[in-house]
Amino acid sequence: MLELPRNDRFFDAKSLPRLLMTSLENDLDPGETHEATGELLAHLQRVGIRFIPQPNAESVESWQSRWQQTIVTPTEAGPPTQGTQPTPRPGSSTTAADPSTIAADVKTPPRAPQHRLQPVESFSVSDDPYPGKNLPIADRETELANLASVVAGCTKCDMLAKCRTQTVFGEGNSAARFAFLGEAPGADEDRLGRPFIGRAGQLLDKMVQACKLQREDIYLLNTVKCRPPENRNPEPTELDNCRSYYEQQLQILRPEYIVCLGAISAHSLLKTKLSVGRLRQQFHQYHESKVLVIYHPAYLLRNPEAKKAAWADLQLLMRDAGLA
């Protein structure tokens, strides 16, 4: 018998069937299936189960061959294409972070095979231009401030409205080329009202700096503006209730690139159930914005071996944007 490891990560039992079905629907992406398994074990421990049967190696091999998926190994990134270097914004710095903090050491073998599933064809939510006018910078800031006031008084989700300290609207450069779309605020964000300021936010800052950008150059927002209780994943109804808010933000900003951080933001924006592993390493389309799906910084903190894949995604972004 194996004793379950201690894990204080919260897992909502109501989300268990949906999480397991999502893993199956997502073609058993190795990284996300590994995470789902860990959360299932943590849930079993919380309900009082301390031991599980010792795995049988022959049975594992049998199941592995039965569910084996055709996979491909990602190719090495080619040399950067020539691009026009963007003009730095006043007051911004272009000091880059050490890419080694993002990319895994290529000399160190990963703990588990990091093969990538065959990517799907790119998604296009809408080829049409953003509705409305392309506003001047000052008008964008006014519109964002007005929308933030509306969000602050939102009570569409009764539970979230009662549990939150405050809403977390988003922040950043209103003329940004890059908008980073996350999932939902955490405890630190809920307390201070700012997105991405915890450990995941610190890693995101390093990822942004590795792209030769600073936090002041981009715009940060989440699909859900209130912290879900105990940091659980947002419910589908909560995502639907908040959709109009982040859609209006993107309409005002009209970013050249939208970077979806993790599965929840990608599923909400692109209206798909495919895994990050199937969606990454290519550009999708949302109105006039190119959409890139990458692993969430919180996922990278739990699974450092995935940093190499995240760095490959950021390199793709840099080459396309002329930052490489």
Automatic annotation (TrEMBL):
<feature type="region of interest" description="Disordered">
    <location>
        <begin position="74"/>
        <end position="99"/>
    </location>
</feature>
<feature type="compositionally biased region" description="Low complexity">
    <location>
        <begin position="74"/>
        <end position="86"/>
    </location>
</feature>
<keyword id="KW-0227">DNA damage</keyword>
<dbReference type="InterPro" id="IPR005122">
    <property type="entry name" value="Uracil-DNA_glycosylase-like"/>
</dbReference>
<keyword id="KW-0234">DNA repair</keyword>
<dbReference type="InterPro" id="IPR051536">
    <property type="entry name" value="UDG_Type-4/5"/>
</dbReference>
<keyword id="KW-0408">Iron</keyword>
<dbReference type="GO" id="GO:0006281">
    <property type="term" value="P:DNA repair"/>
</dbReference>
<feature type="domain" description="Uracil-DNA glycosylase-like">
    <location>
        <begin position="169"/>
        <end position="315"/>
    </location>
</feature>
<keyword id="KW-0479">Metal-binding</keyword>
<dbReference type="Pfam" id="PF03167">
    <property type="entry name" value="UDG"/>
</dbReference>
<dbReference type="GO" id="GO:0046872">
    <property type="term" value="F:metal ion binding"/>
</dbReference>
<keyword id="KW-0004">4Fe-4S</keyword>
<keyword id="KW-0411">Iron-sulfur</keyword>
<dbReference type="GO" id="GO:0004844">
    <property type="term" value="F:uracil DNA N-glycosylase activity"/>
</dbReference>
<dbReference type="GO" id="GO:0051539">
    <property type="term" value="F:4 iron, 4 sulfur cluster binding"/>
</dbReference>
<dbReference type="InterPro" id="IPR005273">
    <property type="entry name" value="Ura-DNA_glyco_family4"/>
</dbReference>
<keyword id="KW-0378">Hydrolase</keyword>
<protein>
    <recommendedName>
        <fullName>Type-4 uracil-DNA glycosylase</fullName>
        <ecNumber>3.2.2.27</ecNumber>
    </recommendedName>
</protein>
<comment type="similarity">
    <text>Belongs to the uracil-DNA glycosylase (UDG) superfamily. Type 4 (UDGa) family.</text>
</comment>
<dbReference type="InterPro" id="IPR036895">
    <property type="entry name" value="Uracil-DNA_glycosylase-like_sf"/>
</dbReference>
